[in-house]
Amino acid sequence: MDDVLRDVRPDAAGASRPAARPPAKRWPRFVIGGLVLLGLAAGGTRYWLNARHFESTDDASIDAYTTQISSRVAGQVTKLLFADNQHVEAGQTLLLIDPRDFQARLDQVRGQQASAEASLQQERAQVAVQQAAVDQAAANVRVAEAELVMARQDYERFQKINPGAVTRQQIDAATATFHSDEARLEASRQTVGGAQAQVRAAEARVLAAEASLKQAEANTRAAELQLSYCTIVAPVTGMVTHRTVSAGNYVNPGQALFALVQDDRWVTANFKETQLADMRPGQDVDLSVDAVPSVTFHGKVDSFQGGTGTAFSVLPPENATGNYVKIVQRLPVKIVFDDPRAKDYPLAPGMSVVPSVRVR
């Protein structure tokens, strides 16, 4: 009560008013405020000293190669051998298309190929037969030549003998035999030419049969390929996703069925061009993934895209026309994980990432 009375003083009119608080009691507030400002300044300075060694952006996301799987033949899907979001290995069978039409086509062309092979063997045999005919005709030519030599000798002998020593009939017979053997030799030679022509014709038929066989073999390989396309296998290792097909659906060539997201992951960070002056491949990166806020992954700068995002857009800017307004461009930077912990978390393409690249 005495303390309260001491804090009350009468004014000039005699009214009571509170006494002024001594100045010495205000100093703790100023000290606390100064300490807070000093702490903020120290923290800001420390943050600036640390932040100037890093370049960061929130325009970044996880990326991966995605393989779109489509049908190469038309047909009805008979079986799916995978589940949604299943991890599959390269070469694993994933989908079957009804193969009966393609099997029938393959059987047909295989029959045509067998027929072409038989025709080729037949034509080759004909070549051998015609070659034998040539050899026989050549032998007949040699026989005719020998007979002509004998007939010529007899003819010349009768021409030199005294006409009174031989009869006219003998001379005429020798002369006829000589001319007959000459004609027979010429006919034998013509037979050889005809036989050789038959050989060349048979060889031409062999070439035609070989061409037909090659065409039949090509048709067989094409039919085998078409049949193999009825079985769709995984071309790469990855996770099946974005499935748009079910058993019983009829699919057409080129129709997208599902996608395979490959296992490799990296970060595509779109840094401003003003942030790239000190950035180099191989620099360390801290990666904060929004989906895993409790873990900071480690990575390294891998490479820089060969142009800004606008340079590869569908409608690139035409700065040479109209009014020009300078806009800070962004360049995609590829950052790879070198942290084994990244495999322990479901890091999916498109997830947001905040990379911090140590540039100094």
Describe this structure in words.
This protein is α+β, with helices and mostly antiparallel strands. It is 42% helix and 23% strand. The chain contains 4 helices and 17 strands. It has a 7-stranded antiparallel sheet, with no helix packed on it. Strands 5-12-10-7 form a 4-stranded antiparallel sheet, with no helix packed on it. Helix 3 packs antiparallel against helix 4. The radius of gyration is 51 Å and the shape is elongated. It starts with a helix and ends with a strand. 15% of the residues are buried.
Give the SSE map.
Layout: H1 2-6, E1 8-10, E2 16-18, H2 27-51, E3 54-56, E4 60-63, E5 66-70, E6 75-80, E7 87-88, E8 93-97, H3 100-160, H4 168-228, E9 231-233, E10 238-241, E11 250-251, E12 256-262, E13 266-272, E14 284-289, E15 296-304, E16 330-337, E17 353-358
Antiparallel strand pairs: 1-2, 3-17, 4-13, 5-12, 6-8, 6-11, 7-10, 8-9, 10-12, 13-16, 14-15, 14-17, 15-16
